[in-house]
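During the reporting period the student researcher (J.K.) took over the structure-prediction task from the postdoctoral fellow and processed the backlog of single-chain submissions. One of the processed entries is reproduced below for the supervisory committee.
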Amino acid sequence: MADFGSVFTPSASLATYVVRLDALEVQASLGIHPPERAGPQRVLINVDLHCNYGAHPPEDRIDAVVDYDFLRAEILKLVASRHFELQETLCDAIAALALVDTRVAGVRVATMKPDIYPDARIGCEVVRRR
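J.K. obtained the following structure tokens:
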């Protein structure tokens, strides 16, 4: 995934923590073509969360930081819940899940359908900021 540098500029006095969920492989009902509608296909999902925890480093407790277990579980429920016509729609739905936690200042979501073409992968990416 691309560098966040130009998208999220951290404050000089605050740290921004990037939490990554990388290459989550799911079976999703995604696409507009008849073969894609016939059944689930392999989709790879990457999520970068830019998290702000205030002026001091977070305490060494899970409740002091964004819980990526929660995000992963919600993504799995989301892709199992319905058919998505477009990767853009799926990316936006995942971004909305990530932004539920107010400590997430911004999110980048990328999806990739690796098996559509024999010679290329096809994907989409969205960046959302609070």
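The committee noted the following: The first helix runs from residue 34 to 37.
J.K. will present the remaining backlog at the next meeting.
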